[in-house]
Amino acid sequence: MAAETPVVDTRFHTGAVETHCAYCALQCGMTLTVEGDHSSVEVTPRDFPTNRGGLCQKGWTAAELLQSPRRLTAPLMRDSRGEALREVSWDTALDAVADRIRAVQTTHGDDAVAVFGGGGLTNEKAYQLGKFARVALRTSNIDYNGRYCMSSAAAASNRAFGIDRGLPFPLPDLAQTGAVLLMGGNVAETMPPFMQYLNAVRDAGGSVIVADPRRTATAEQATLHLQPLPGTDLALALGLLHIAVADGHVDRDYITARTTGFDDVWRVATQWWPERAERVTGVPVAAQRATVRALAEGRAGRGAVILTARGAEQHSKGTDTVTALINLGLALGLPGRPHSGYGCITGQGNGQGGREHGQKADQLPGYRKIDDPAAREHVARVWGVDPDALPGPGRSAYELIESLGTDGGPRMLLVHGSNLVVSSPRGGRVAERLAALDLLVVCDLFLSETAALADIVLPVTQWAEEDGTMTNLEGRVIRRRAAVPPPAGVRTELEVMADLAARLGRPGGFSTDPRTVFEELRRASAGGVADYSGITWERIEAEDGVFWPCPSVDAPGQARLFTDGTFPTPDGRARFVAVDHRAAGEDIDDDHPIYLTTGRILQQYQSGAQTRHVEALRSTAAEPYLEIHPDLAAWHGLRDGDRVRIVSRRGEALAKARLTASIRSDTVFMPFHWGGEQAVNRVTNAALDPTSRMPEFKVCAVRLQRVDNQGSLPATEPSGTVIAGQA
Ligand SMILES: Nc1nc2c(c(=O)[nH]1)N[C@H]1C(S)=C(S)[C@@H](COP(=O)(O)OP(=O)(O)OC[C@H]3O[C@@H](n4cnc5c(=O)[nH]c(N)nc54)[C@H](O)[C@@H]3O)O[C@H]1N2
Ligand SMILES: Nc1nc2c(c(=O)[nH]1)N[C@H]1C(S)=C(S)[C@@H](COP(=O)(O)OP(=O)(O)OC[C@H]3O[C@@H](n4cnc5c(=O)[nH]c(N)nc54)[C@H](O)[C@@H]3O)O[C@H]1N2
Ligand code: SF4
Ligand SMILES: [Mo]
């Protein structure tokens, strides 16, 4: 089966290849040592500025992804739902996809074909996917999983600073600061090598303050742990600003010289006296005061930094929460000072670059807005098309999913780099919408839960099988290098897009060479906020990565933002934006009396589609648990290890109870790395942030039921799916 010879890059480096990890935004530097026949690949950490020789367990074991027997190596197809997927040739699969695109668009219009991308794709693939959607498919309906990730922080940063880059400085600067307030991040599990920078602050006598409803491994190592109720960070931020003003810590000169809008912000914060903030958040007044004092002392010395991660951001008020924290930072005069400012810890490997080059519904390359006529003109010229032919803004990720198969909604979906049936909120509804499609096409490495639902599955190259660039959490553009050839039968997504565009007879030029695509990306991004035009692959290699914005090949990229005292806004000033606290999308009641929050554990990555195939990770984290306070457990008659059903107004999930006094007694926590009945997203709430369209992954109301049946949870992986044609 699948007899054609794949088009593979033959320029594979042999021996030791310097590259970066397969997974998260820290993009730890590692060397892959490849045996001559590519039969074994060894990982060793490199001394790169983000990891300085450190790796987490996922990084150490990442090479297992390259040799997994469960890797997809041939296109799969079925003619009707209910039939098993069978192996087919690339020509059969691509002809079928192109035929259906044509048929669906003829009947239902161009927008009836939709695309869902991913923040793990290289810059080249993300850029090409945005272009493919607008030029080859002519659809406005493209969005991606970054909408679930950093969209709230992105919206807030753009609103305040006119630019959205994860960190405003290289990560090692963080170690030099005097105080860090980390709101809703558990980096000890999500980016372990990051901890060295926080611990350096603490060990030098500075303050590290972590706000999390759980006393996480990160909070354990902090100097102060604030333990707010999920969904109340906005009230906490307002309370902190109130104290900053009342106790005389704000920087009046900075506010006058560099910002606008403080008075409106203060009018709201006057209402948030510390006792009121304590009542809403549960954070004692003394701890609030200590937090503000620590930030003010840090500023007076080496500096102070406010960081947010998903705990504060993944809410229906995530944008306003981040805004309130930026307001606090501006009032203290932090952005632009040495080792100071606001930063968002981005998430996926290319979470930063993935949101700059056009796979977002409202965006064109270079972080341009798709409804800006000048932006359309510029990008259309690079693409060789008429600006009027470019579609306008499309639907955001979850709204796109909700619209699938509805009247006027898309009839066909192409997925590139997301296991969205596991990772989207309100999973039951998501599965229903996917089932209503005429055709679901998934490009993946593995038969993920989403791929298992597809009509056509296309096996694509991964990580160490391809060349390209990624943009890490610092805004540093780095090189991903091909170390091993892909298995026979696998193609790159650049090839898939080129093949489909050719079959559709659509213009624009879709190169299959990542470097050629990067050269085009440079031109397309030139003059945009995220300007990559001065970045070349050679510079990246020579300079340990290049920071954007980088508009000139003759000048360094801008590693540190705002240091000249101005901001990339029309008047050069940062903008305070007045926001007030509001309740979460849903509150507890008699039927659903407990708060549920969700997140990550060390050993698993995202939907688990990759890490559940790595034996060392799978064996140490085989199934989800529900973190629950012993008092709450006693109330439910639950003992450690008992099976428990988590029930919300939308659905239910299964986990094993893990009793721990480290979590608030009104809140339970469950990681989201598993599918089927073990998917916590069957329970979560799809309430969206009105600005960023971020779903509320981090708080909803549930009740718990003890399940009598003990032992392991039922297996949920699609590994049992029998594929016709495979032994
Ligand atoms: N091991 C591992 N590492 C990863 C990933 C992974 O899946 N696994 N994914 C990567 C990606 S894409 C991302 S986005 C990052 C995410 O990195 P993090 O943001 O660090 O990860 P989370 O576990 O989602 O959330 C962090 C913390 O928020 C807390 N929290 C929950 N609700 C609230 C709240 O209302 N307020 C506050 N203040 N805190 C709250 C949770 O208890 C949790 O400890 O991790 C990256 N790294
Ligand atoms: N309850 C809850 N839900 C959440 C979150 C939460 O905190 N709580 N966090 C949200 C966040 S921050 C994120 S980022 C999302 C992530 O959730 P997903 O979007 O599901 O991310 P992954 O599980 O990483 O899925 C990536 C898929 O792409 C495949 N893949 C890897 N590389 C490539 C490639 O180059 N090309 C292609 N085509 N495929 C590739 C992988 O095998 C995998 O199947 O989950 C969100 N969902
Ligand atoms: S912290 Fe992130 S980039 Fe580093 S080894 Fe772990 S998963 Fe890979
Ligand atoms: Mo993420």
Automatic annotation (TrEMBL):
InterPro entries assigned to the protein according to its UniProt record, in alphabetical order: Asp_de-COase-like_dom_sf (IPR009010), MoPterin_dinucl-bd_dom (IPR006657), Mopterin_OxRdtase (IPR006656), Mopterin_OxRdtase_4Fe-4S_dom (IPR006963), Prok_molybdopt-oxidoreductase (IPR050123)
BP GO annotations: respiratory electron transport chain
Cellular compartments per GO CC: membrane
Pfam family, one: Molybdop_Fe4S4
Annotated 4Fe-4S Mo/W bis-MGD-type domain residues: 14-70
Keyword annotations of the record: 4Fe-4S, Iron, Iron-sulfur, Metal-binding
GO molecular function: 4 iron, 4 sulfur cluster binding; metal ion binding; molybdopterin cofactor binding; NADH dehydrogenase activity
Keyword DNA repair on entry: no
Listed name of the protein: Molybdopterin oxidoreductase family protein
Organism the protein comes from: Phytoactinopolyspora halotolerans
